[in-house]
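Homework help board

Subject: predicted structure for assignment chain

Our instructor gave us this sequence and asked us to write out the predicted structure in token form, then describe one feature. I got the tokens but I'm not sure how to describe them. Can anyone check?
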Amino acid sequence: MAGDRTRHQESRRDIRAAMTDPDILFRLAETIEARKQSDLHASYVAKLLHEGRDKILKKIAEESAEVLLASKDGDSAHVVRETADLWFHCLVLLAHHNLKLEDVLDELRRREGVSGIDEKAARKAGGVTGQAG
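My token output:
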């Protein structure tokens, strides 16, 4: 019995790990970067990057609105799908600006453990410049 329970717990842990794999963001960012050189007719990412910043920003605005509407409807699965679309298009925007996922993660690490109120006050006082929040 104990062996069965242990195997079951290990199986659940493996499933959770696979479903919460943070490396998916890095793999997606790498794919987006690789698609910069793809045929515009064969790659949505290549086409979107070719159409430029305003088109990418329009997609981000659309996806943001869809996240808000899904949340307002109270549909958790829809919120997840629309958030995935939003994150995807934000990664495309980063690629457009030749930025990396690591740049955003570094900024989040910098902010970790800092009160949002203190962080915002530091920006207003000139401690941190050029950042939105």
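Reply (TA_rk): Your tokens look well-formed. For the description, you could write something like this. Helices lie at 2-19, 23-35, 44-51, 53-73, 76-96, 101-111, 116-124. That's the kind of observation they're looking for.
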